Amino acid sequence: MTDFSAEKRLVLDCYATLDRAALDGLADVLSLYCTPDYRWRGFHPFNELVGPETVAERFWSPLHRALTPIQRRQDIFMAGRNQMKDDASVWVVSMGHLMGLYDAPWLGLPPTGKMAFLPYCEFNRIEGGRIAESAFYFDLPHLMVQAGLRPFPNQTAAHVTQPGPITHGGQLFDPQPPEEGVRTLAAIEAMIADLGQWHSGLPLEEELRRTWMEDMIWWGPAGIGATYTIERYAKQHAGPFRAAFSDRSKTKHLCRMAEGAFGGFFGWPNFTATLSGPFMGRAPTGRRGEFRVIDLYRRAGDKLAENWIFIDLLHFWKQQGVDILADIRKTLSG
After folding, report:
1. How far is 239 from 192, CA to CA, in rounded Å?
2. How far is the C-alpha of 53 from the C-alpha of 135, rounded, in Å?
3. For 50-95, what is each residue's pLDDT tens digit?
4. Residues 170-205: pLDDT tens digits?
5. How many beta carbons lie within 10 A of that of residue 40, not counting itself?
6. In this model, does residue 210 exceed pLDDT 80?
7. Are 228 and 217 in contact, with CB atoms under 8 Å apart?
8. How far is CA 234 from CA 143, 156, 237, 239, in A?
9. 0.90 exceeded by the pTM?
């Protein structure tokens, strides 16, 4: 068994303390658990932040004011060594929802006075017994929809609150057999090899069947949505996405890891591509755009069965000349 118990306990303790901390104590919590030069990557409009105090002031404090009290509803929790670098760094990954009563504005978005769920996934690099680096990716458009807003004109798949894995076994608190993580990583890398080229020579559905279960589920972000089975995934996302983009760059991940039947990766960005066809109900722009993405997977047998995806669509569209967050704020202000 490969034991990441110490790293997992560090992150779990940080979460428990952070989630119940008072507003004026959030910076102290992050300073206790994170390095002084802690590097935090988040979606638009936060982007990159450095230092525990800055992350607390810019991100966590406003969020804690808006969602009260925050309850962390974690669905996947795992750890592993980064396969993208020679430093063999350990990363701890958490995915789920931050839930609370949406009682105060956040980022200029109106509160609802009702329960609200912010889907999130976070990769944490552990160094010297502290968190040195995080990628905290979250679905802000999903929260917009809950507030009655319509950030995107069209969605090809279903808008749902993403559940955890069907097995209900995604929280890997105990050590896992290393050979299971090796199998998961092999399945992910085989899928990446097909996905990264977009011209395997096979029809799309046949290509997907090489690495995906027939009843696979793609839990996509708000604006694209979730889709079920290879046939519908090809029709409702993979096909339209490939038709909309050209000149896709090579995949560049900062971390790729797996533990047990679960694994995933993130990049900053993962890849770039040119919007040369219609996408998400908008016309092509001919501009290149960055895709900041986290993907988490569940493997069944030797194929992938479920995929949870976080894409910084606000950042992508801003690069296309469409500032969705600013436009919504302007509309709300009259």
Report:
1. 16
2. 17
3. 999 999 999 999 999 999 999 999 999 999 999 987 668 999 999 9
4. 999 999 999 999 999 999 999 998 876 666 678 999
5. 26
6. yes
7. yes
8. 26, 11, 6, 5
9. yes
Q: Element (H or E) spanning 232, and its range?
A: helix 230-233
Strand partners, 97: 73, 119
Q: How many CA atoms lie within 13 A of 298 on its CB side?
A: 23
Q: Would you state the structure tokens that stand for residue 40, as one six-digit string?
A: 């935090």
- Structural domains of the chain in order of their starting residue, each with its CATH number: 5-146 (3.10.450.50), 178-273+282-333 (3.10.450.50)
Per mean pLDDT, which range of 200-204, 212-216, 232-236 is the poorest?
Answer: 200-204
> What sign does the CA torsion over 80, 198, 247, 231 have?
negative
Q: Residue 279 — φ and ψ, nearest 5°?
A: -150, 130
**Token pair for 14:** 């940080």
Residue recorded with tokens 């669509």: 313
* DSSP, res 23: G
Q: Answer whether 165's CB lies under 8 Å from 172's CB.
A: no
- pLDDT band for 220, please (50, 70, 90 cuts): very high
Q: Locate all alpha helices (DSSP H) within 246-323, ordered by sequence.
A: 313-319
User: Position of tokens 């533990």?
Assistant: 259
Rg (CA), the chain: 19
CA dihedral 207, 212, 217, 223 (to 10 degrees): -40
Report the mean per-residue pLDDT for the chain: 95
**How sure is the predictor about 238, in pLDDT bands with cuts at 50, 70 and 90?**
very high
